[in-house]
Design goal:
By secondary structure, this protein is an alpha/beta fold. It is built from five helices and seven strands. Helix 3 runs parallel beside helix 4.
Length: 179
């Protein structure tokens, strides 16, 4: 499923983010940039030790922020490690922190003049953020960024599970209906 916003293609695909050919892929990282399970572990395994070596040099990344490393052996040029919030019931600024993680990732892509970026569904795995709440934030943040002006030509949401993919498709369709 895809939509076009001011000439930029925004799409949802079901698949493995480590196989996506984009200028940057976004990693759902932890504050210590230590690697982990889920998409974080998959990116580190597929990309090789170069990614972790750069993460160790950087040290930490605050929740709601992001940092950039090499992509190692991945087909991307960069990995943007975005730290989303752990869901604690929704009363601790989780939505703002999630929005900030996406915004910071987009800003880092712009600073590097990238034309494509691929996102996972940040914070909706081990961090427990309900996808029904996270997905509209992710899509709205990307669309608002594009509407303000961007060098990005392609934004891809890469979803691992069928249910997550269906959630993103439904939200993209709602976005089309609103415009």
């Amino acid at each position: 499923m895809e939509i076009v916003v001011r000439g930029t293609k925004v799409e949802a695909v079901k698949g493995d983010i480590t196989k996506v050919e984009a200028d940057a892929i976004v990693n759902a990282a932890n504050e210590g940039l230590r690697g982990g399970g889920g998409v974080d572990g998959a990116i580190h395994r597929a990309g090789g030790p170069e990614i972790m070596a750069e993460c160790r040099k950087i040290g930490r990344c605050s929740t709601g922020s992001a940092v950039v490393t090499t992509a190692g052996k991945l087909p991307a040029k960069y990995v943007i490690h975005a730290v989303g919030p752990i869901w604690r019931g929704g009363k601790h600024g989780e939505e703002d922190l999630l929005r900030s993680a996406y915004e910071t990732s987009l800003r880092l892509a712009e600073e590097r003049r990238l034309s494509s970026i691929a996102f996972p569904s940040i914070s909706t795995g081990a961090y427990g953020f309900p996808i029904e709440r996270a997905c509209p934030i992710a899509i709205a943040t990307v669309v608002n960024h594009i509407r303000r002006g961007t060098k990005l030509k392609h934004v891809i949401f890469v979803l691992f599970s069928e249910d997550d993919y269906k959630t993103y498709v439904a939200n993209l369709k709602r976005m089309v209906e609103k415009t």
